[in-house]
Design brief:
The chain has 303 residues and is α/β, with parallel strands linked by helices. 42% of the residues lie in helices and 22% in strands.
C-alpha cells in the first residue's frame, strides 16, 4: 500500500465519521478504506482510531497523527496547485469556516461566484459561530468578526462593520427614545451572545470610550434571531450594520444614537502560517475583499 493512500483514507474517515462515508468521498469501497487505515496503523505501530459498533474516535496517538497527516496532504495539494497556477488555472480544495449570519448573507453567494469563475476549485464551506481550530480540524481559512485574541494565525482584513443600536417603531412608541448611551440602561435589550461582551456596549462620548450596561431577559447566539425579536418590538439591540441596513432603509427599524460612534469591527480572514500562500487561497481572499467592499458600505450616521 502507498502510505499516502493510507493517510488520505485515515483523514477521510475522521472527516466523514465512518468508513462507509469515507469510501463514498474517495470513490472506493469501505472495506478498502478499512484496509488502508489498518495498514497505516501497522506501519506506524500504533492504533489511530478506536472502533466500536456505534462510533469511531481518535486515540491520543491518532489526534497527534491527524495534524501531521493534514499537513502532508495539504503540501501535496500545494505542489499540484503550483503546477496548475503556472499554467494559468486554479485547482484543488479549500475548507473554509465563517460565522453563520455573515456566511449566509455574503460568503455563500461570493463562494458560489468564485467557483463559477474557477471550475477547477472545490470548496467545503462550514458555517459556525464557534471558535474553530484550523490546524486540528483541517481548515484552510477562517472568517471572523471583531477583536480577536492573540493568535499564531495570519490575519488579513477583508472588511469592517459596526454594531448599530436599533429598535422598531412599535417599541419606540411604547418607550422613550434613548438620546444618550447611558439611557440604554432603562430599556429592554435583546443581547447577542456572539458579542465579546453581550451585557455591555462601548460608545464614544465626548471623546472618551464609555461602557454601558445592556439589561435584558433574552440573550441568543444569532444576529438574525436578535433581529427578528427586535422587528417584533420585543426590545432594542446592538446588531451588525450589515444585518439590519435594509430594515433601517425600509423603516422597519430605526437607528438609535447615531451621533455616538461605536468601535469598528474588523472582518478578518485567518489562516495558518505557511511558507507560501496557495494560489487558490490567495485568489479567494482577493475575491472576497473586492466583493465585500461595496456590499458592506453603510449609509452615513443618522440616515
Amino acid at each position: 500500500m502507498d502510505r499516502i493512500d493510507g493517510i488520505r483514507a485515515f483523514v477521510a474517515v475522521v472527516d466523514a465519521g465512518s468508513f462507509t462515508r469515507a469510501g463514498d468521498r474517495l470513490g472506493i469501497s469501505n472495506k478498502l478504506v478499512s484496509k488502508y487505515v489498518a495498514a497505516l496503523e501497522g506501519q506506524q505501530g500504533v492504533t489511530l482510531l478506536n472502533r466500536t459498533t456505534r462510533a469511531l474516535s481518535l486515540t491520543p496517538s491518532g489526534e497527534r497523527y491527524l495534524i501531521a497527516a493534514r499537513r502532508v496532504l495539504a503540501a501535496m495539494e500545494e505542489l499540484d496547485a503550483q503546477a496548475s497556477a503556472e499554467e494559468g488555472t486554479l485547482t484543488g480544495r479549500l475548507r473554509i469556516t465563517a460565522p453563520v449570519t455573515f456566511g449566509e448573507m455574503f460568503v455563500t453567494q461570493l463562494t458560489r461566484d468564485f467557483t463559477r469563475a474557477h471550475p477547477g476549485i472545490s470548496i467545503d464551506l462550514h458555517l459556525s459561530d464557534r471558535y474553530v481550530d484550523l490546524a486540528a480540524e483541517g481548515f484552510d481559512l477562517a472568517l471572523r468578526i471583531g477583536q480577536l485574541p492573540d493568535s499564531s494565525l495570519i490575519g488579513r482584513r477583508i472588511g469592517q462593520t459596526e454594531a448599530w443600536a436599533v429598535a422598531s417603531p412599535a417599541y419606540l412608541a411604547r418607550h422613550s427614545r434613548p438620546t444618550h448611551p447611558e439611557a440604554l440602561r432603562d430599556h429592554v435589550c435583546i443581547r447577542d451572545s456572539n458579542a465579546q461582551s453581550p451585557g455591555r456596549a462601548a460608545f464614544l462620548v465626548e471623546g472618551k470610550s464609555v461602557s454601558v450596561a445592556l439589561p435584558g431577559q433574552i440573550t441568543v447566539n444569532s444576529a438574525q434571531a436578535v433581529r427578528r425579536l427586535v422587528l417584533e418590538g420585543e426590545g432594542l439591540a446592538l446588531i451588525p450594520g450589515f444585518v439590519v441596513a435594509e430594515d433601517v432603509a425600509a423603516g422597519r427599524l430605526e437607528r438609535l444614537l447615531p451621533a455616538y460612534a461605536r468601535p469598528q469591527l474588523d472582518i478578518q480572514a485567518l489562516y495558518l502560517p505557511q511558507p507560501f500562500i496557495a494560489p487558490r487561497l490567495s485568489a479567494y481572499l482577493d475575491h472576497l475583499r473586492a466583493a465585500l467592499t461595496p456590499l458592506l458600505k453603510a449609509p452615513p450616521p443618522g440616515s
